[in-house]
Write a structure and sequence with these properties.
Elements (H helix, E strand, L loop, with lengths): L1 H11 L14 E6 L3 H14 L6 E4 L6 E2 L1 H18 L3 E8 L8 E9 L3 E5 L5 E2 L22 E2 H5 L15 E2 L19 E5 L4 H17 L4 E5 L9 H16 L3 E5 L14 E6 L16 E9 L16 H7 L4 E4 L11 H10 L4 H7 L3 E2 L3 E4 L11 H10 L5 H14 L4 H9 L8 H13 L3 H12 L5 H17 L3 H14 L6 H15 L2
Parallel strand pairs: 1-2, 1-6, 3-7, 6-10, 11-12, 11-13, 13-14
Antiparallel strand pairs: 4-5, 7-8, 9-16, 15-17
């Protein structure tokens, strides 16, 4: 293992160093006092994150996912602002506020000191503020027609709570003055923005699981593969969505994730093998589809999953409609989505998110906040905002996993290989390092990677042998499927049609419910025709 420790030591310097952060004392937790499950979740989260009891607030809210503007103002927004002031969690005074849209700094009543930066909304707190058609603002007439609306995500509206005394307009989005920041300390109410996220899902149990999985990943690391589903679109109106996803994929590669990118217009088909999912980002279908609509999805503890769609978070209570609810139900730990039409420019910029979360080591809440170009709009952020899986030095985490004899060490080794490759490493040298690493002999993950490295060197026979060995090392169901498909392609490319036939028949025997089995049967039929004299 010495070779890998040397490689890791060399790469630590190019990764952002760990950053100290406060934690629970910077958090306010809000629950629906009419719902016992909401209070129970708030109490659990406060205990697990060491949030002071006096920073856990219950408000009597309606039991729907939606609330009127009046309900939001009277039952939540105003009461929360009063609590923060009366509990001396922040202090109002006169100070300078950064302008937006090229406007200069101005002096106004604002939050001048704050002990807290985060607000966590628990299951039972409404998700969306409904449009008030009787509300007409003078400034509304200056907006583009599509922005002359005042519905919003509760989370996004509360993010502007530090500006409440300024009576900001309710129609349309508000430019996030902290969009794209690289210094997380700037994400502070004194700069006009609260970090708001929610612990929410189809059931209270699922919502609670978001806390447990986040804590697990902080202890063990977030491991697995990163998947990016682009559309390869050239329409200038929509092309930025692809550009953001490409940027996020590049960040994932640079920090060592095994990164898979698809540029076909459609979403991944149901039979596409997705194993050990750590990160998923893609677009653009209305309802959950492809591999994520299958009975089992291999999300790793701590996984982030995001599908860009205008109504991806129209409800969090469904496990088969829209995207946010189903992704959480299948095992994702954190996500983002939109409660209503945001238009592309009003959605999170995932390239910014990936850079802040994966590289700079922001908490999930910090990265999500920095990635939102606008607030008082349609985005909801779901997951523990304190979740920070990239807060430990890679070398230290690798050594801890080794000491614990954790099976996750295989992913740490894979990360080292990928970091080496991302920094210009030679496939032959990286393959040699894997060959002499004892963990490779028992790891389907590393043996399959060895096959990929052989293939990159133009050694098809060695690649085939490695994939066959990996199949004997107890891969996960989806990884086994992917290995069978890859092996079939390699065998056919080498003219080993009979071996390819046996491999594909074995695939059908191992996965009788495989979604794309008709495609496999067609390949088998083609091989049979080819074999006839």
């Amino acid at each position: 293992m010495c070779r890998f420790l040397l490689l890791l030591t060399a790469t630590v310097a190019v990764l952002a160093p760990p950053r100290l952060f406060a934690g629970g004392e910077e958090v306010v937790v809000v629950y629906n006092a009419r719902l016992p499950e909401s209070k129970a979740l708030a109490t659990y989260y406060a205990r697990m994150r060491q949030v002071p009891k006096e920073q856990v607030f219950g408000f009597k809210l309606n039991l729907s996912e939606t609330m009127t503007r009046t309900e939001f103002r009277d039952d939540l927004q105003t009461l929360l602002a009063q609590k923060l002031a009366s509990q001396k969690l922040w202090r109002l005074g006169s100070g300078e506020l950064p302008g937006t849209n090229g406007q200069p700094l101005r002096v106004a009543r604002k939050v001048v000191a704050s002990k807290i930066r985060y607000v966590v909304l628990c299951y039972g707190v409404p998700l969306k503020i409904l449009r008030d058609r009787d509300l007409h603002e003078t400034a509304e007439a200056t907006l583009r027609p599509e922005f002359r609306r005042n519905e919003a995500a509760v989370d996004s509206e509360l993010a502007c709570l530090p500006r409440l005394d300024l009576s900001p307009p309710l129609a349309g989005p508000f430019g996030n003055p902290l969009f794209g920041v690289t210094n997380a300390a700037l994400l502070n109410p004194t700069n006009g923005v609260l970090i708001v996220a929610r612990l929410d899902a189809a059931t209270p149990e699922m919502a609670r699981g978001l806390v447990d999985k986040a804590l697990q990943a902080e202890t063990d690391g977030l491991w697995g593969r990163a998947y990016f589903d682009l559309r390869n679109i050239t329409d200038p109106v929509y092309q930025p969505g692809d550009d953001w996803l490409r940027g996020a994929a590049q960040v994932a590669r640079q920090v060592g994730f095994e990164t898979i990118v698809d540029e076909h217009p459609n979403v991944w088909p149901a039979g596409f093998p997705m194993d050990h999912i750590a990160i998923y980002m893609g677009w653009y279908t209305e309802n959950v589809a492809g591999p994520f609509a299958q009975p089992q999805v291999e999300f790793m503890p701590g996984a982030f999953a995001y599908h860009l769609h205008s109504f991806s978070a129209a409800s969090l209570r469904s496990t088969n409609h829209n995207w946010v609810g189903p992704l959480l139900a299948k095992g994702a730990t954190c996500t983002m989505g939109c409660v209503d039409e945001p238009y592309l420019g009003g959605t999170p910029e995932v390239g910014v998110f990936a850079g802040r979360w994966l590289y700079f080591g922001f908490t999930f809440g910090e990265a999500a906040c920095a990635a939102q170009p606008v607030l008082s709009w349609q985005t909801t952020v779901v997951g523990d905002p304190l979740y920070r899986p990239f807060g430990k030095a890679p070398l230290g985490l690798h050594e801890v996993l080794q000491q614990r004899k954790s099976p996750l060490v295989e992913w740490s080794i894979l990360r080292l290989v990928n970091l080496g490759f991302a920094r210009g490493g030679n496939p032959a040298a990286l393959a040699f390092s894997l060959e002499e690493t004892p963990t490779t002999r028992t790891s389907a993950v590393l043996t399959a990677k060895l096959g990929d490295l052989y293939a990159a060197q133009g050694k098809p026979a060695s690649a085939i042998a490695a994939y066959e060995r990996a199949l004997r090392l107890a891969p996960s169901p989806q990884q086994r499927l992917g290995l069978r498909l890859t092996l079939g392609e390699r065998l056919m490319a080498e003219g080993r049609d009979e071996d390819a036939r046996k491999n594909l028949e074995q695939l059908l025997a191992e996965a009788p419910d495989y979604a794309d089995q008709e495609i496999i049967r067609q390949r088998l039929a083609a091989l049979a025709r080819k074999a006839k004299p």
